[in-house]
UniProtKB/TrEMBL annotation:
Protein name per the record: ATP-binding protein
Alphabetical list of Pfam families matching this protein: IstB_IS21 (PF01695)
Keywords: ATP-binding, Nucleotide-binding
Region (Disordered): 248-272
């Protein structure tokens, strides 16, 4: 081995090349390990970048408010503290594949306006996307119903029927569907709306898709508003009911001193 190395060194001197020091020599096995480690680091970095891009795309498609996160939530009342605890348990359960494959799960958030229902639902969704890359879709039920009614206008020129069919398919396929403002300002949904929503929830149930429903109704009023066919579909899910009863977290409109005065008497325009 030494004579071979000497020959290489002699040849290098003849060619005017520098002769490597003994300390600079790296054997093949060491060199191979070095390049394998470097390749693994580059692959891990590429995988991390690809995962980040996938997660960003999932957030973008979800239509969630980016401010709806647990870090932005003020836990200032017992109902919010309890809701966050239930939410965290629900998220942690996704670690168990058996739980995820066991069936469909539904969370029902109910209570008055401004209690933080949509915020916590959005925080759950954001965390599920980040941890498990779960597809999420946030929709207001009233908007979907308006689109559905418009789809019956066969004379429309904006392809609203095709758009609704595509939207309806997204509602069926997404892993986590958040329906907000369920039956808002509605004491009873129309019969055809009850049937459509009931069928949607039943199909998601069969396909083991999860849901979060957000409503301002009490559970009794929600049952009446949805109708028996639709409400019965909720009972088939593994259901978590969370009531919000704390103070409103929405800032009210500031009132001027003039607001306490009676309104001025109406006077018609006068020619001057």
């Amino acid at each position: 081995m030494d004579s071979f190395k000497n020959k290489l060194n002699s040849l290098a001197k003849t060619l005017g090349k520098s002769v490597p020091n003994e300390s600079e020599y790296i054997d093949y096995k060491t060199l191979r390990k070095h390049y394998e480690a470097q390749a693994n680091r580059e692959i891990a970095q590429l995988q991390q970048q690809t995962k980040k891009q996938r997660i960003e795309q999932l957030h973008g498609k979800s239509d969630l408010n980016p401010r709806w996160t647990f870090s932005n939530l003020v836990e200032d009342s017992d109902d919010v503290i309890e809701a966050v605890s239930i939410a965290q348990s629900f998220i942690a359960a996704h670690e168990d594949k058996a739980w995820r494959d066991a069936g469909s799960h539904m969370m029902i958030f109910y209570g008055d306006y401004g209690r933080g229902k949509s915020h916590i639902a959005g925080a759950i969704a954001h965390q599920l996307i980040d941890q498990f890359e779960i597809t999420v879709l946030y929709r207001q039920l009233s908007t979907l119903l308006e689109m559905r009614y418009s789809s019956y206008d066969f004379g429309a020129q904006d392809n609203v029927g095709q758009k609704f069919r595509q939207a309806n398919q997204e509602l069926l396929d997404v892993d986590m569907l958040i329906l907000d403002e369920v039956c808002v300002n509605e004491s009873v949904l129309k019969k055809n709306a009850q049937s459509w929503l009931g069928n949607l929830l039943r199909q998601r149930l069969v396909n083991k898709k999860n849901c979060i429903l957000i409503t301002n109704h009490s559970l009794n009023d929600l049952a009446q508003a949805l109708g028996s066919y639709c409400f019965e579909s909720l009972k088939e899910y593994d259901t978590y009911k969370v009531k919000f009863s704390g103070p409103s977290r929405r800032n009210g409109l500031e009132m001027d001193d003039q607001d306490d005065l009676p309104p001025p008497r109406y006077q018609p325009n006068q020619l001057r």
